[in-house]
Design a protein that fits this description.
- This protein has 15 helices and no strands.
- The radius of gyration is 23 Å and the shape is elongated.
- The chain has 3 domains: 70 residues; 63 residues, no CATH class; 114 residues, Alpha Horseshoe (Transcription termination factor 3, mitochondrial).
- The chain is mainly α.
- The relative contact order is 0.07.
- The longest helix has 27 residues.
- Keywords: Transit peptide.
- Pfam families: mTERF.
- One of its GO terms (biological process) is mitochondrial ribosome assembly.
- One of its GO terms (cellular component) is mitochondrion.
């Protein structure tokens, strides 16, 4: 299955009218143009430094820059969001105003609120080009809202884990079930993490490693989920590298964790095989 960036990347290529050729756009001309459209709201020094750090921005002609900047401004984007959006996704400079508006309308209809849509699109501009139609997005939001309770919480989940938009729902529900039923983590803590960017095995292996070390103890069903406990925070467990997790959270070595993952993978596979055999019987 393609990842979120891969889905968007593949789709985006269909918008390009041919191989992009380098232009002779000069840095001073681009800075002057951006400064004009934004009415001087972006510091010239910041513009210069940003373009120098991202020289590919000079590969697009001045008309494209002016067209896209003006379109985004007309759609209500504040000046400070414009440059990060384009730096994150310069392909948008190939888009027509109609294509940009169509992409934005798809998200405005999700009822996240205008400002939240702008924040989401600024962080992940490729969302303007996702191939899924509006009905798919609405259905995905409704499905996640059963767990997240509110649209605002679904928006937060998208901000932290944009793959939730394109991943198959069959991959998402087992993660939700594991966090709820096995780890017994409450929703507010989940909303502070990027846990859904991890695959289920990563979530399980990190949790079980801590559990077998006696560091993580899930609350019983009878206990209040809101009650404070001494378990490591979910973001410490999931939003860290293997090395940081192993040494700073599990107080073990990276080598020990890697050996555990290999053994645990075999254990999980054996359990799956046993379940498959039982189903056949």
């Amino acid at each position: 299955m393609l990842s979120f960036p891969a889905v968007v990347s593949r789709f985006s290529r269909f918008f390009l009218s041919g191989k992009q050729s380098l232009s002779s756009l000069a840095l001073p001309d681009l800075v002057k143009s951006i400064n004009s459209v934004t009415e001087g709201e972006i510091d010239r020094a910041v513009l210069h430094e940003t373009v120098k750090l991202n020289p590919n921005l000079l590969d697009y002609d001045l008309q494209s820059w002016q067209r896209v900047l003006q379109t985004l401004k007309n759609q209500g984007f504040p000046s400070y969001m414009l440059l990060p959006l384009i730096v994150n996704y310069p392909t948008i400079l190939h888009r027509t105003p109609e294509q940009i508006k169509l992409g934005l309308d798809k998200w405005h209809n999700c009822q996240f609120g205008e400002r939240n849509v702008m924040k989401l699109v600024t962080r992940y501009p490729m969302l303007l080009d996702i191939p899924n139609d509006e009905s798919f997005i609405v259905s995905r939001i409704a499905s996640l809202q059963e767990y997240a309770e509110t649209r605002k919480n679904v928006w937060t989940m998208f901000m932290n884990s944009p793959n939730l938009i394109t991943d198959k729902i069959q991959l998402i529900h087992p993660k939700i079930n594991y966090l709820q039923s096995t780890m017994r983590v409450n929703l507010p803590e989940v909303l502070k993490t990027e846990v859904f960017t991890k695959n289920l095995f990563t979530i399980r292996s990190r949790h079980v490693f801590l559990e077998r070390l006696g560091i993580y103890k899930a609350k019983s069903i009878k206990e209040d989920l809101e009650e404070i406990n001494k378990n490591p925070k979910l973001h410490q467990i999931m939003d860290t590298s293997d090395k940081t997790f192993a040494t700073k959270v599990a107080f073990a070595t990276l080598e020990e964790f890697e050996v555990f993952k290999e053994l645990y993978s075999r254990e999980v596979n054996e359990e799956d095989d046993l379940l498959d055999n039982n189903d056949e019987e």
